[in-house]
Design a protein that fits this description.
Number of strands: 10
Number of helices: 7
Strand order of the largest sheet: 6-7-8-3-9-10
Order of helices and strands: EEEHEEEHHHEHEHEEH
Shape: globular
Low-confidence stretches: 253-263
Mean pLDDT: 91
Radius of gyration: 19 Å
Structural class: alpha/beta
Largest sheet: 6 strands, mixed
Distance between the termini: 17 Å
Length: 263
């Protein structure tokens, strides 16, 4: 399975002192990510999209509302929800194989089975031959491939990604986006991506959730029906990019575009 439902989620951060006003990061956010769907959450910095992802992962709690996975409330971080971070978050003292198999060992999967799964995921992300290298011996793109392999190794129902390609140069970013499309097609996982990039969201997603400025609300949910791969020069790609750019640049009028597919 892997149906993730966000229902009327509100997040309010208290002030640091009595003189500081509380900050409302999210306001009544609702949408559903279907099983085996690739969904991107797109919006300006500060719109609450990473906050929402952290609540999905169990790193933070909603002030109001709820998030469920297969109709069960999400709680503390668990194997069913794996996270890929922007800064790789690899263990520098472990090799590629050691990093990929770390979660398997925590799940009490060891020995030959752990080695088999780790090797399978290392090959999936194109790192065969680098099993014994350490993170400092790898490029940024290769480190992120290790992070992807590590997340997939524990066989999550949902893969959560917080701008995983943002720190990469343009060439590596484009290459890893293409790789992520291939991995998504091969693995068929429910995937949720937080991104600032309209092009990235269109290239990867089945649906795009466009957020307003803080407090973040769902402004529109856009289905991307183009077949993969999706070249940026395709007229439909250009049309979608223009539409989404206009939404993001003009989100102060929340009545302009109706919300589609609320949970």
């Amino acid at each position: 399975m892997g149906v993730l439902k966000v229902h009327e989620v509100v997040k309010i951060y208290p002030g640091h002192s009595l003189s500081d006003a509380p900050v409302k990061a999210l306001a009544n956010v609702s949408f559903t990510v279907e099983e085996n769907e690739f969904c991107s959450i797109l919006g300006h910095s500060g719109c609450g999209k990473t906050t929402l992802l952290n609540i999905m992962a169990g790193f933070d709690d909603a002030t109001l509302g709820r998030i469920t996975l297969d109709d069960k409330p999400v709680g503390k971080p668990g194997w069913e929800r794996a996270m890929i971070f922007q800064d790789y978050a690899l263990f520098p003292w472990l090799t590629v194989s050691g990093n990929v198999s770390f979660g398997l060992e925590r799940k009490n999967i060891g020995g030959e089975e752990s080695r088999r799964i780790a090797q399978e995921k290392i090959e999936l992300v194109g790192l065969k031959g680098f099993e014994n290298r350490y993170p400092h011996q790898l490029s940024g793109g290769m480190r992120q491939r290790v992070a992807i392999a590590r997340a997939l190794a524990v066989d999550p129902s949902v893969l959560l990604m917080d701008e995983p390609f943002a720190a990469l140069d343009a060439q590596n970013r484009s290459m890893l986006q293409d790789e992520m499309v291939r991995i998504f097609i091969e693995q068929r996982k429910t995937m949720v991506l937080v991104t600032h990039s309209i092009e990235e969201a269109i290239k990867l997603s089945d649906r795009i959730v466009v957020m307003t400025r803080r407090p973040g609300r769902v402004k529109a949910i856009i289905e991307v029906k183009m077949p993969r791969p999706r070249p940026e020069e395709d007229p439909e790609f250009v049309r979608l990019k223009t539409r989404i750019r206009d939404l993001i640049h003009d989100e102060f009028d929340l009545t302009e575009v109706p919300i589609q597919n609320p949970a």
